[in-house]
Each structure stands twice: as structure tokens, then as C-alpha cells.
Specification:
mainly alpha, Serine Threonine Protein Phosphatase 5, Tetratricopeptide repeat, 2 domains, two-stranded antiparallel sheet, 4 strands, 9% strand, flat, binds zinc ion
Length: 208
């Protein structure tokens, strides 16, 4: 009898172990699949870059949009390339939106900072011009509808107070200064809060 019990426990134990390795394998497989999918999307991003360099802006736009719609978290470099390509396509509002996002995310340390700033200025003046002539762009793709990957630091300089932690208010009695309610005491936002802020969801949270 003792012997039988022993066999019973041993088989239960080995079944458990088997089940465990199975779920581990499933997890591993899922992670591999995700990495593979992300790799394919990054290839699409690269070919979008090439198309843009070759002046095929419509084709590049298709590639970038495909990545935007299928990637879990938008790589910050894509915010620059999509913004820059939007400028070529004369979608100025869209261009301003994504280039601003890139500059907010990467700051002066960003690889494309200089060009992003220059392109942003071009988009802004062109946008003012188009507003004068009242030509409207329809169906522009804006960054607020996407989750942006803030990169390895996972922190972003607060775009509201620009990292100063202080916000200037102009009221009836002149200027006054208030502590910024969006960021931490060092002027930073977590990536999650940053994404909420650009969707206009963070303010509500602070008020509650
Ligand atoms: Zn702030």
C-alpha cells in the first residue's frame, strides 16, 4: 500500500511539473511571437524611412500608418518620421502634432532634434498660411490616439510647465505662479501619465 501511494504522489508530482513546463513553453512561445511581430513592424518602419528619403511620401505614409495601427507602443523615432513625412504631404496639423511629440519625448538629446525643430517651424508657418486660405485637411492622424513608448528612461519632461514645476497664470490681479499639478516635484511625468495628459485624461484625475 505504501508503495502504491508513493507511486501515486510521484505521478501527481510529475504531472504538475509537466503542466508547468507546458505553460512556461507557451509563455516563451508567446514572447517569441511578440518579438517576431515587433521585428516585422520595425522592418516596415525602416522601409518607410527609405521611401521617405526617396521622395515617395504617399508610400512612406502607408508604411508608417501600418506600423502605428499594429504596434503595441509607438517607438519615439516613428513620431519624428511620421511628423516629417506629414510635412511633405502638406498635412501640417498632423505634422505639428507628431513633431511636437518627438521633441517633448526626446528633448535636445534626441538624434533628430535639430531637424525636428526646423521641420516643426516650417509646418507651423505653413499651417498658418493654410488657415488664412481656409483649406482644411480632413482625416488627419493625431498622436493622442496612440500609446507612445517614452523610451528607456520612462520619464518625460512635463510639457505643461516645461519641467519648471511652476505654471504662470494671468488673472485680473496680474500674474501669479502656481505649482504645476501634472508632474512630480522634479518636473517629470511618468510615461503612463504623459500618455494620459495628451489624451486630456490626466487633468480629470488630478481634480478628483
Ligand atoms: Zn509640470
Amino acid at each position: 500500500m505504501k508503495h502504491l501511494l508513493c507511486i501515486f504522489f510521484l505521478s501527481v508530482l510529475s504531472l504538475n511539473l509537466l503542466a508547468q513546463t507546458d505553460s512556461e513553453k507557451a509563455n516563451e512561445y508567446r514572447t517569441q511571437q511578440e518579438a517576431y511581430r515587433k521585428g516585422l513592424l520595425l522592418q516596415q518602419l525602416d522601409s518607410g524611412k527609405l521611401l521617405m528619403e526617396n521622395g515617395q511620401y504617399e508610400a512612406a505614409d502607408k508604411k508608417f500608418k501600418y506600423v502605428l495601427d499594429n504596434i503595441k507602443s509607438v517607438p519615439s523615432d516613428l513620431t519624428y518620421f511620421f511628423g516629417k513625412n506629414s510635412l511633405y504631404l502638406k498635412k501640417y496639423k498632423q505634422s505639428i502634432d507628431w513633431l511636437t511629440k518627438y521633441i517633448q519625448l526626446k528633448g535636445t538629446a534626441g538624434q533628430y532634434y535639430a531637424d525636428a525643430t526646423k521641420s516643426l517651424q516650417q509646418a507651423e508657418s505653413a499651417y498658418i498660411e493654410t488657415r488664412k486660405t481656409e483649406t482644411k485637411q480632413i482625416g488627419e492622424v493625431l498622436s493622442r490616439n496612440y500609446d507612445i513608448d517614452c523610451g528607456p528612461g520612462l520619464k518625460v519632461v512635463c510639457p505643461v510647465c516645461k519641467g519648471t514645476t511652476v505654471v504662470k497664470k494671468i488673472g485680473v490681479f496680474g500674474e501669479s505662479f502656481k505649482t504645476c499639478t501634472f508632474c512630480d516635484k522634479h518636473g517629470f511625468l511618468s510615461c503612463e501619465d504623459y500618455n494620459k495628459l495628451i489624451r486630456g485624461e490626466l487633468q480629470q484625475e488630478v481634480k478628483q
